[in-house]
Design goal:
about 180 residues, five-stranded parallel sheet, two-stranded antiparallel ribbon, 9 strands, globular, oxidoreductase activity, FMN binding, FMN_Rdtase-like_dom
C-alpha cells in the first residue's frame, strides 16, 4: 500500500482544482490517500532577506515532511493569466530552498482545471517542465477543460462521459506506475 498525498496549487477557498484532487482521491482504492490544503501551511512571499533573517518556518518544514512521507503526489495546478499562480510558485520556491531535491523519488500525477476550454493547460505544461528540476517524475498528466460544464458539484463527479473515461484511464495508469 502506497501513501499518496493530494493537493491543489490554489489558495482560493472555492478552488475547483481542490475539488478535482478531492474527486481524484475518491477514485483510488487500496492505497493510503491524504488530501491537504496548501493554505494550511502559510508562507510569506519568498525573499532572500526573510530566508536569511528568519530561516525556514515551522509551516514550511511541516509541509516538506508531508511530501517526504508520501510515496506519490497528485497535484492540480490553477492558472492566472496563462501562468502558474504566484501562490503555488511561492510554495515551490520555499520548498526548493529548504531542500533542492524535495521531490526526489516522488512519482506525480499532475492535473489542472479551469472554467475555460483550455483547462489551465499552460500552467500544467509550465509545472510539468519545472518539477523534475527538484527530483520529481511526472508519470501522468491531465488537463480538465470547462470545469463548470463538465463537473457536477452536486454529485462531486465528472459529468462528461468522455472526460470521465480519460480521467479514469489516467488514474489507473498512475496507480499502476506507483505500484511498480
Amino acid at each position: 500500500m502506497k501513501k499518496i498525498l493530494f493537493f491543489a496549487g490554489s489558495n482560493s477557498s472555492k478552488s475547483i482544482n481542490h475539488k478535482l484532487v478531492t474527486f481524484a482521491a475518491s477514485q483510488i482504492v487500496g492505497h493510503n490517500v491524504e488530501i491537504i490544503k496548501l493554505t494550511d501551511y502559510e508562507l510569506p512571499m519568498f525573499s532572500e532577506d526573510i530566508e536569511r533573517e528568519k530561516g525556514y518556518s515551522v509551516n514550511l518544514k511541516m509541509l516538506n515532511n508531508k511530501i517526504k512521507e508520501a510515496d506519490a503526489l497528485v497535484i492540480s495546478v490553477n492558472e492566472h493569466n496563462r501562468m502558474v499562480s504566484a501562490f503555488f510558485k511561492n510554495t515551490i520556491d520555499w520548498l526548493s530552498r529548504l531542500d533542492r531535491n524535495f521531490l526526489e523519488g516522488k512519482k506525480i500525477l499532475l492535473m489542472s482545471t479551469s472554467r475555460g476550454k483550455l483547462g489551465a493547460a499552460s500552467s500544467l505544461e509550465a509545472t510539468k517542465n519545472v518539477l523534475p528540476r527538484f527530483g520529481a517524475t511526472i508519470v501522468e498528466s491531465f488537463s480538465f477543460p470547462s470545469y463548470s460544464e463538465n463537473f457536477s458539484e452536486e454529485t462531486n463527479s465528472i459529468s462528461n462521459e468522455v472526460l470521465l473515461l480519460g480521467f479514469t484511464d489516467v488514474i489507473q495508469n498512475f496507480v499502476h506506475q506507483i505500484e511498480q
